[in-house]
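Lecture notes, part 5. Sequence design as translation. It can be helpful to think of inverse folding as translation between two languages: the language of shapes and the language of residues. The source text, in structure tokens, appears below.
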């Protein structure tokens, strides 16, 4: 048996503890169990009240914003289709149907000369009357428009020797704003010399050993011999236009 107070071993059924003197007839009153020390969370709750939990407040959702339609997309597609269609139409109308290619420079030059080309009459020697000058100018304009060549008649009193005629009037041609493709009749009244000169692509039409040049001069000779320079000039225009219509000689 043990003492209720000092916990020492004593004689069974002893009424007093021989060590501490405590009365052993009545057991000591039972102490109420001590409450456990509060935990950290309990102490925190005792000092700072925790607010009641509330149901989460739902955030208002943004209303669905309808985006503006992308109008530029159909515009770009339509523009591309227009460009493609234009290219197809250009190819259809510009490519010759016979399969031959037409150089752009030749096409543009022919179109411009056919519509705006005019002949040139430079009667410095005063060989033609006003009426003859008007008639020759009309014939020169017509031939120039039909052939694409510029037809030129130049008269002078330069008295140039026959061996110097080509050099002198080549320089004259170069110093004036004549067309690239031109044919020119020169009559030097002082020396009584005449010459036909051609420039640009025109010489290719006379590349036959001189036969076509001689044919024009032979046709003009009777009028030149008789002094009818007006008629000789008309024959020059007619025969040179015919050479153009004949085309370039086959080599």
């Amino acid at each position: 048996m043990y003492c209720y107070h000092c916990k020492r071993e004593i004689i069974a059924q002893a009424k007093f503890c021989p060590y501490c003197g405590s009365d052993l007839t009545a057991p000591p009153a039972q102490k109420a169990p001590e409450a456990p020390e509060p935990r950290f969370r309990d102490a925190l709750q005792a000092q700072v009240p925790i607010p009641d939990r509330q149901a989460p407040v739902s955030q208002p959702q943004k209303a669905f914003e309808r985006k503006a339609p992308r109008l530029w997309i159909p515009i770009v597609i339509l523009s591309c289709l227009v460009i493609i269609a234009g290219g197809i139409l250009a190819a259809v109308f510009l490519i010759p149907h016979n399969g031959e290619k037409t150089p752009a420079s030749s096409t543009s030059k022919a179109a411009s000369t056919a519509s705006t080309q005019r002949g040139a009459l430079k009667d410095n020697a005063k060989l033609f009357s006003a009426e003859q000058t008007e008639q020759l100018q009309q014939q020169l304009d017509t031939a120039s428009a039909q052939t694409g060549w510029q037809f030129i008649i130049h008269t002078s009193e330069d008295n140039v020797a026959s061996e110097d005629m080509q050099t002198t009037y080549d320089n004259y041609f170069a110093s004036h704003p004549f067309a690239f493709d031109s044919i020119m009749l020169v009559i030097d009244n002082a020396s009584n010399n005449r010459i036909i000169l051609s420039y640009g692509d025109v010489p290719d039409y006379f590349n036959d050993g001189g036969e076509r040049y001689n044919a024009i001069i032979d046709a003009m000779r009777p009028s030149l011999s008789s002094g009818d320079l007006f008629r000789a000039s008309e024959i020059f225009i007619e025969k040179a236009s015919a050479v153009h219509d004949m085309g370039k000689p086959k080599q």
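The translated text above is only one of many valid answers, since several sequences can fold into similar shapes. Helices lie at 40-47, 72-94, 104-116, 130-147, 165-174, 211-226, 229-246.
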